[in-house]
Structures are given as C-alpha cells and as structure tokens.
Amino acid sequence: MTLTKAGGLAALICAGTYIFGFVFLVTVFAPLGFGPGEIDIPAVVAYTAENPGMMILWNTTIYVVNALALTVLVVALHRQIAAERPDAAALGGAIGLIWATLVLGAGMIANVAVEHVHALADEPEAAAELWSTMHVVELGLGGGNEIAGGAWIVAVSLYGIASGTLGRLAAVIGVISGAAGLATILPPLGKIAGAVFGLGAIAWFIVVGVALLRAAPIHVRKEISA
Question: pTM for the complete prediction?
C-alpha cells in the first residue's frame, strides 16, 4: 500500500472515530451530561468506577486511535502537497503534527484519569476532584479546544486546492469546519463551535479520504502536468 492510499484509509479512520464519539455522546453518555448539557461529575465518577473499560474504550478510540491515524494522514498530505508547494506543505505538516500530538496527549491523560478515579471508587469526593482537574487538562490539550485542528484543516484545504491534491468540496467543508474549530477559543461559542467542527470534520475526513484513495501517484501527476 502506498503512503497516499494509507493516508486515505487513515482519513476514513479519523472520520470513524468522530462518528463513534458522537454516537456514544448521544447514547451511552447522554445521562452523564456530556455534549451540550452540563456534565454531572458525580455521575461520571460513579460510571467510571463501575465501567472503567468502557471509558478506556471511549478515550482510546476518540483520542489515541484518532491521533495515530491523523499522523499518517498528516504525513500523506504533506507529501502530496510538497510535490507542488513544498513551503506550504512544511507549514501544514508542522501544524498537523502538533495537533496529533495534542490529541494523543489528551487521550493519555484521560485514560490515566480513569485509572485513578477507578482506584478511588471508595472515596467519591476525592475521585470527583481528581477527575475535574484532569478533565480540564484533557480539554485544554484537545478535548474542547480545537485551535490546532481548525488551523490545520483550513491550511491543508487551501493548500490542497493549490497543489491539485484536494478539490473545491474539501476546501469549502474544510474552511467552514476549520473556522468553527478556531471559534472554540471563544467561551460563549465553545460547545456550539465544537459541534460544528466535529460534524464538519467527519465530512471533511471522508471527502479527503476518498480523494487520496483515488489520487494518481505523484510521479504520474508530474508527468501529466509537464
């Protein structure tokens, strides 16, 4: 499998992790207040104490698997864009790897929080305080702050058009989704912008994944353009 094809598959995996996350939010985790409502911390702590495996599955899928797939996608898009726009590819690749690192870090912290909360099952107040603290760190890295992701998606979407890697549909979806990600820095818009970013990212990852899976090898593209 070529790097381009691997990048296309990675993009679809990224979309899958987002879909998995949204489904869990509106089903399994709905009673805990995740999503648009206020989080019920005592309920989260009780659920984590009883179902640590489910929480580990959630964190590992939406953060760790996503970050690893995202790394492959970042490198694949960097190589594609570099064929025509090496400077732009370098900038986009740097931003993308920063985002992947933050997402991976958020997942590792979230999983450590699950382990410690589970260990404090007999001390619910201490467990709640610990979870609240670590959850803030998790959100700051990548769970509720989409600055790096928004910047990367916007940059790659625009550079992708210039290099011929991505089409206009990816650019339009990417700019809208990326702008929503950048808007998560504003507290009043945080949750709404985060939802728009997440839903837009699903569509963007799918469009990009299909584009990469259908893309001609770089050397063929160069011969055609010549």
Answer: 0.90
